Amino acid sequence: MLPLTILATTLGSIAALRGLLKWRSAQRDRARDHETYMVASHNEQELETR
Fold first, then answer.
1. Rounded distance between C-alpha atoms, residue 4 and residue 49, angstroms
2. Where are the strands (E) in 1-50, listed by range?
3. Distance (Å, rounded) from C-alpha 46 to C-alpha 40?
4. Mind spelling out the 3-state secondary structure of 29-42?
5. Which pLDDT score is estimated for 1?
6. How high is the pLDDT of residue 49?
7. Backbone phi, then psi, for 39, in 5-degree steps?
8. CA–CA separation, 42 and 3 (whole Å)
9. How many helices (H) and strands (E) would you count in the chain?
């Protein structure tokens, strides 16, 4: 019974860590997308004023 408990705890911890890593990756992707949008928007405005 104890090995099953240890296995369940280990797998639960791994799942929690993977979830955290996915969340961080999604945060970085959103920040990168926002930065890309801001640069593109700035460039578009700059081209319109020429």
1. 68
2. none
3. 10
4. HHHHHHHHHHHHHH
5. 81
6. 83
7. -65, -45
8. 58
9. 1, 0
pLDDT of residue 6: 96
Greatest extent of the chain over all pairs of C-alpha atoms, in Å: 74
**What does the pLDDT look like over 2-38, one tens digit per residue?**
899 999 999 999 999 999 999 999 999 999 999 999 9
If you search the block for the tokens 């081209």, which residue do you land on?
47
Tokens matching residue 13? 């911890």
Task: Report the predicted TM-score, pTM, of the whole model to 2 decimal places.
Answer: 0.67
16-38 burial by CB neighbour count: b if 16+ within 10 A, else e? eeeeeeeeeeeeeeeeeeeeeee
**Residue length of the chain:** 50
